[in-house]
Amino acid sequence: MSNSEATAGAHPAKEERRRLPRAKGPYLLVVLHVAVDVQRLVELGKKYPWPRPKRCLACSSWRVWGHGYVLRYFEGFLLPLWIKRLRCPDCGVVYTLRPDLFYWRFRYSVRTILSSLTTKITDGFWLPSLPRQNQQYWYRGLRLQSLRTRNIVFPDMTALKEIISSGLVPVSHSFNCAMLRL
Q1: What's the burial of 79, exposed, middle or buried (CB within 10 Å: 0-12/13-18/19+)?
Q2: Which pLDDT band, with edges at 50, 70 and 90, does 11 fall under?
């Protein structure tokens, strides 16, 4: 008798383990931008009353449960902020609720980023109060989105306004960069 035959029935619990369902929807992680009082969020931390979607955006299930909190750093705050996560148990999609004052994957506020881009476009220089490298990264993202949407290499204020009004993140280097709002 081989070793595998001898141990085949020794661990019935291993054979009967439930496998976690894979996400059936098109998303595994969805970032939802919500209106948040950031100062109140700093004060309350995990006790902040986050809004919730009424249904799952991927499978339309009513069951969207709390999935804990994650720490995220934002410019202007010394300590990271507790950001709420939700999960749909039916399709496995995880939602991260993010303050709408900040673009996804950016630490600086939308206002700061747009101020930097406006200064670069209108005056031709970077803001001295911010790191030049960050501002160059944002401007390269704007150039990419401008090329993608309007076929313009050097964007002007009209291009910036059109990109923003279309719902895209103007400084993103991604082609899938629309902000989902709750």
Answers
A1: exposed
A2: very low
Residue 75, both tokens:
């410019």
Helix (H, G, I), strand (E, B) or coil at 139: helix
Extract the tokens encoding 82.
């507790």
Q: Is 26 exposed, middle or buried (0-12, 13-18, 19+ CB in 10 A)?
A: exposed
pTM over 0.90: no
Give the CA angle between residues 45, 47, 49 to the nearest 5°.
Answer: 110
Per DSSP, the three-state class of 66 is: strand
pLDDT digits (tens, 9 = 90+) for 53-92: 999 988 899 999 999 999 999 998 999 999 999 999 988 8
Say if CB 52 and CB 23 are below 8 A apart: no
Beta strand extents in 8-112 (DSSP E only)? 29-34, 65-72, 81-87, 94-99
Question: What b/e sequence results for 48-70 when a residue is b if at least 16 CB atoms lie within 10 Å of its CB, and e otherwise?
Answer: bebebbeebbbeeeeebeeeebe
Torsion (CA) 37, 43, 45, 46 in degrees, nearest 10 = -90
